[in-house]
Amino acid sequence: MPLNIDKGLAGTVAADTALSFIDGAKGVLEYAGYDIDSLARSSNFEETSWLLWNGRLPTSRELAEFGSALQAEYALDPRLIDLIRTIPRTAAPMDALRTSVSAMGHFDPEADDNSVEANRRKALRLVAKTPGLIATFDRWRKGKPLAAPDSSLSIAGNFLWMLTGARPTPAMERALDVCLVLHADHGLNASTFAARVTISTQSDMYSAATTAVGTLKGPLHGGANQEVMEMLLEIGELEKVDGYINGKLARKERIMGFGHRVYKAYDPRATYLKTFARQVASDTGNLPLFEMSRRIEEIVLAQPNIIEKGIFPNVDFYSATTYYSLGLDLDLFTCMFAASRMSGWTGHCIEQLAANKLIRPHADYTGPRGLAYVAIGLREDAATSRTSPSARQTMSVAAGAKSSSM
Ligand code: ACO
Q1: What residue owns the CA closest to ligand 1's atom 3?
Q2: 354 or 386, higher pLDDT
Q3: CA-CA distance, 382 to 398, in Å (whole number)?
Q4: Residues 186, 260, 267, 331: which is the catalytic one?
Q5: CA distance 123 to 195
Q6: Could you say which of 3.30.70.20, 1.10.3720.10, 1.10.580.10, 3.65.10.10 is the CATH number of the domain covering 7-224+331-354?
Q7: Fold held by 237-323
Q8: Quick one: pLDDT band at residue 299, thresholds 50, 70, 90?
Q9: Under DSSP, is residue 64 helix (H, G, I), strand (E, B) or coil?
Q10: Nearest atom of ligand 1 to the alpha carbon of 259
């Protein structure tokens, strides 16, 4: 079979999915057929998760039952809380989340049951408990008493309650909820792909979710929202935006929160978020930050060739100011992305197992072949006399590549 190299798998279709549809050229995102903009305006995270897992909108009874089932799962096993207390307070919250999502599996008797029913129950638990995992670690690292969940609240409301120990205003709850809706699923993005690879080995959902959290962490993926905020704080004021951004562009540095592997038009998640972020920033006295973001967008989009390259703000650009306006620490931003994407990751795991095939691509081997084994006592002499230093370096890299392809 002829093999094509597709670095970054940009042109490879590796799965079927009924969760979300993306048209990157036109800037369209739909969850199970529903446009993301209408969901962000009218739906909520609970309903969106149900939609992703069932392929249709729920009836009011189904939604009420689903909401209650989620609320019944907010509480964390006390042994899991003890385990979170052993994570160093200095740990990055995304690392702590990776550990605690993994640890959750120890306390779920169904962890290794890959039946559809058990996986749906685990998906529900993961979505219900992830905000609590994040809030618990954050309060622990700050030396604050832990807050028990409030099962009368929505997922967004309960998270803010567990994080701050104060009842969120409806506006705060709604702001976080919109972000959760917007981030819930996105085709075969890197972390979802990683989750599907893991579950395709018939591993378990906790392992897949752990893989996904680790993959989301990187700044080219979910970690970008934190970097956007760091950039805004580094710039500090509107007057300094032009010099800062033009300097970065002149040095050919990337502007965080811009560009996307799939979208070559305006990220449809950023459209509503931009308007919404302005409102949240205005309500919370953070309008100057929004104005800086807007100016950055103007400068970047005015660059020659930038539109041709398809560089526009992505969802992370305006979610950064929204999270900041809600009072979240910068290193929690990517955790919020994870709390939302958990519904997509788990939905994809169930979908992958429904028509499973082990995901196992090829690597193009670039090292030497057919070498004669050299006894260790003779190796240095043999190696130095027969190959150049750069060739030896290639050989050791190739040896690593060979073993990792097993
Ligand atoms: N700022 C400036 N230029 C950019 C940016 C950016 N943020 N992103 C891409 N470009 C330019 C590149 O320099 C390159 O230009 P060239 O052709 O002249 O060399 C061109 O656009 C294509 O870039 P690639 O890296 O090949 O595009 P790719 O599709 O691989 O990258 C990515 C997508 C990784 C998201 C990239 O746009 C990026 O690094 N953005 C910043 C990080 C970020 O915001 N990530 C969040 C993504 S959204 C999410 O995960 C939810």
Answers
A1: 254
A2: 354
A3: 18
A4: 260
A5: 13
A6: 1.10.580.10
A7: Cytochrome p450-Terp; domain 2 (1.10.230)
A8: very high
A9: helix
A10: 37
